Amino acid sequence: MPLNNMQFELILPKKIIFGNGSVERVGDEAKNLGCESALIVTSKGMKKREALKKVIDSLNSEGINSKIFYEVEPEPPIENVYECMEFAEGADLIIGMGGGSVIDVAKKSAADLGLRKVMIPTTAGTGSEVTHEAVLKVEGKKRAFVDEKLTPDVAIVDPELMKTMPQKLVASSGIDALAHAIECYDSKRSNLLVKTLAFEAYRIIKDNLRKAVEGDRKGIENMALGSLIAGMAFGNSGTALAHALSYPLSNEGIPHGEAVAMVLPYALEFNGFDAEVIKEVKGILRDLKLGREVKGDIEEMARIVMEDKKHLSNNPREVTYEDVVNIYEKVGKGL
C-alpha cells in the first residue's frame, strides 16, 4: 500500500455505539450530553415501528421529554430542514432515526440550530450517521453540504433495526455502501487510515450483501458494520465520479442507491480500478437485478455532472464532458 499522503485528519462522532439492542442506550447518551428535551426526526413509515417506541421509552426512563417530526421525504428538499427547524422549538437535542434522508435532514437541522445530535440509522448503506456531510435537494437538484458542524455527537448503529428492510432497499443501500468503500479508496483526499477502513468495509460488504438481501440475519448485521466502516472512510476522503454521475439520475426520481448502482461499474472502468473488483461489482449487480433505464437527456445530465466540482476534483482521473456522455451511453445499454 503506497504511503503517499502522510498528513491527514479524521473527523468522527465523539462516540460510536454498535450492536444488537444498542438503540435502548439513547436515553443514557442523551443524558450524558446534558439534554432535557429531544426532537426525534423520522419518516411516516416509522410510526408503527417497535424501534421508535424503544427510543421514546429510553428517553422517558431518563426524564427526557420528546416530540416527533415525521415529515422527512425521500431524497429530501432543503425545505424539509426549514420545517424541521421550526418544529424543533424548545428542544436541545435532535435524534435522527431512519435512512440517509432522515439523518441528513436531522443533521442539517441540528447544525443550523446549534443543537446536540444523536443519529440512529435504520438502513445499512449511507453511513451518514458518522459523516460531516448532508445531501439535500436545492431547487430540485441534489447538493452536498459539508461542514464539521454536521458531525453527530453520538452514532448508535443497531443491526436489529435493519432486519425489517425490504429486499430491494437492502440491495440498493448496500450498493451505496459498497460504492463508498471503493470510491474513497482511490480518491485524491484518501490517506492510509481511509484506505485501511475502506478495504475492510469492501471486504465485509462484498461477502455479505447477497446474504443480507436473502434475509440472512448475520449477513444484515455484517452489512450494518460494513456500512458504518465505509461511512467512517468516505466521510474523511469523499466520493468521486460514480456519485457525481448518480446525482442527475436521482434528480429524475431514481433513488440514490439505485442510481449509484447504475453507474458504479462504468465509473470504476473509466478510472482504471482493479479489474477483479469491477468483475465482483458487476456480478453483485446482476445477481441483485439492480438497474433502470436512463430516461433523462444525457447531454443535459452530463452538463450537470461537469458542474459537480466537489466530486470531480476528488476523482483520481480528469473527467471531460465527452467522457461523461460516453459513460451515460454505456449505462443506457446495461451490463
In short:
By secondary structure, the protein is of the alpha/beta class. The protein contains 13 helices and eight strands. It has helices at 26-32, 50-61, 78-87, 100-113, 167-185, 192-213, 217-234, 241-251, 256-270, 275-288, 298-306, 309-312, 321-333; strands at residues 15-18, 37-41, 65-69, 93-98, 116-121, 133-138, 141-146, 154-157.
Describe what you observe in this structure.
It is a single chain. The protein is of the alpha/beta class and 335 residues long. It contains 13 helices and 8 strands. The strands form 2 sheets. It has a 6-stranded parallel β-sheet, with helices on both faces. A hairpin with a 2-residue loop joins strand 6 and strand 7. Helix 8 packs across helix 11 and helix 11 packs across helix 13. The longest helix has 22 residues. It is globular, with a radius of gyration of 19 Å. The mean pLDDT is 94.
